[in-house]
What does this fold into?
Amino acid sequence: MNVIDNQSFNDSFQYFDKEIVVEILDIFLNEYEERLSTIKKSIDELDFPKLKFHAHSMKGVVANFAAPSAQAAAKTLEDKGTNSIGDDLIGDYEKLEEITLKLVEEIKVLRENFV
It folds into this structure.
């Protein structure tokens, strides 16, 4: 099953120049590892305000790609940060990481269609 809803993605980006779409994709590809690392660090330090902030940021970024499962995984961590809930943070992070890595692979394929 795809992480990206291709129809929604195409609807969102249909009016963009191909170069702009490639730039948006490249920004994500260049930043996702640091985004995940920052979320993981917030979890390791039990810094709930930072977890909320960074998970919220990740949720917004993956929303650009019409990736509802990635959004939901990030929202789970955002909510736990908001409410200072430490239960199963590592499991939730691993789910986000797994979905994000699938998203990265799908973005790489999509990118090839725009170059």
Notes: Helices lie at 6-13, 18-44, 48-63, 68-82, 89-114. Residues 16-114 form a domain with the Four Helix Bundle (Hemerythrin (Met), subunit A) fold (CATH 1.20.120.160).
